[in-house]
Amino acid sequence: MDQTLRSRIEVALDSIRPYLEADGGNVKIVELTEDMVLRLELLGACGTCPMSTMTLKAGVEEAVNGRFLRLHA
């Protein structure tokens, strides 16, 4: 993965990490595919939380998409 792109994704994830860490979790990048599919892993308490799907959709996905929409606007 391109380091500049990885850095941009990490900045986006950093905006949501304090909320994940407050609940005993975190998120890490697993891979970014050639067709721009970002695979993430929820860590710690977030990995087994029944709300993890909502966390990914409403929290992590919004943070990453919002950050990239602003960067590319």
From TrEMBL:
Q: Which GO terms describe its molecular function?
A: iron ion binding; iron-sulfur cluster binding
Please list the residue ranges annotated as the NIF system FeS cluster assembly NifU C-terminal domain: 9-65
Tell me the InterPro entries matching this sequence. Answer: FSCA_dom_sf (IPR034904), NIF_FeS_clus_asmbl_NifU_C (IPR001075)
Gene3D superfamilies from the UniProt entry: Fe-S cluster assembly (FSCA)
What would be one Pfam family of this protein?
Answer: NifU
Q: What processes does the entry annotate via GO biological process terms?
A: iron-sulfur cluster assembly
**What family does this belong to?**
Belongs to the NifU family.
- Give the protein's recorded name: Nitrogen-fixing NifU domain-containing protein
